[in-house]
Fold this protein.
Amino acid sequence: MADYITIEHSPALSGRVVVAGAKNSVLKLMAASLLIEGVTVLQNVPHIADVEIMGQVLQALGVKVNWTAPHELTLDGHHLASHTAPYELVAQMRASTAVLGPLSGRCGQARVALPGGCNIGSRKIDMHIAGLEALGAQVCIEHGYINVQVPASGLLAAEVLLEFPSVGATENLIMAAVRAQGTTIIKNAAREPEITDLVTFLQEAGVGIEGAGTAELAVTGTTKVNEVCHRVIGDRIEAGTFLVAAAMTRGDIEVEGVDPDHLDIVLRKLEAMGAHIERGPQSIHLHDADKLRAVDIQTLPYPGFPTDMQAQFMAADAIAEGSSLVTENVFENRFMFADELGRMGADISIEGHYALVKGGTSLSGAPVISPDLRGGAALVLAGLVAEGTTTVHDVYHIDRGYEDFCSKLASLGARITRQSEPD
Ligand code: EPU
């Protein structure tokens, strides 16, 4: 049975919604548990499909993974049974490659299936491999697997300059460096809040890391990484998605459980569109949105505008007054949902990594297909303001990263339901 989501034209959203823990943080924290020869407890863990898949990857490696409270995962990494992350699992979720660094550090070897391309681009992993090689590992690709072999003397610290501040490469390198001898310097490191969360987690486990939140990290290797209990940061992209939904419907909502600083540029863009925003310590209040004005968006590594919010803003730009230029600089193929949005009446022309959005169109409900996680969420948002009924299919993409997306939107007044259809 495949599920689909039905959305009717909805009133202005109103009320309060609590976001879950950040997907892109928790997946790496789960991988980092491989560095700990003991128990890791993670709190504020979202119930999303990607967490289940990462749990299966870790179980395949010998970690005992258990839900010990509704949003608490306990990972027991006393004994690892394997250093192979199999293709069947990696093919389901690219983020499985986050086990490369910690496995190499802890086991001295790692065998991780090479992920293929995905819906948003080819997503190479050359920087992950170059980073491991800089620490002295031998890496080769054979039969569809990345094989890492660490010399008997172990990994050795190095100075690594990343060509691009890749989130995944920075994380793998940090985790490998935890087990290297000496202090590894990572230059041009990614600075996303999820990376800072990983650094905080490792610091809590006793690892010496300096430079959190900056483009230069210094990781001092150790043989002892302590057991740790850590609360995952709130999901800034989930929060941003609800805020765009509220702005599009000219609603009044309070989003809780997220640090507004993590959404700085997103909140500024929403203000430029005409929304009023108040920032609390761990909450954001959006209210009294004027008729939306189109804004240009240019995705960049943090603290630039997040690629994971590009689709939601394009949906808002489609109904806003004026034209806008959306530039996608991070992934080469992240405009697939725009064709679906076009089926709802949006006027969008794509040229390479630019999208010209002519705003002011009235969207009309239509059956559409979710091409990827954020594109799917954007189509749901479009359905809230479209006349008539929208059905979004292939919602398994949305389930990868949003916990209870439909019920949270419904609790804010959205006219949204989820159904199953026979295959
Ligand atoms: N890249 C390379 N070589 C590498 C690594 C990356 O060329 O070795 C390229 C990629 O192909 C891509 C760009 O660099 O074009 C950025 O990739 P990055 O490594 O920064 O991203 P990621 O680690 O693959 C994470 C998130 C994405 C998010 C990006 C950017 C997770 C599990 N995924 O991906 O999240 O868009 O960072 O912020 O953390 C999502 O949640 O919907 C999502 C796609």
Q: What stands out?
A: The CA atoms of residues 299 and 329 lie 5 Å apart.
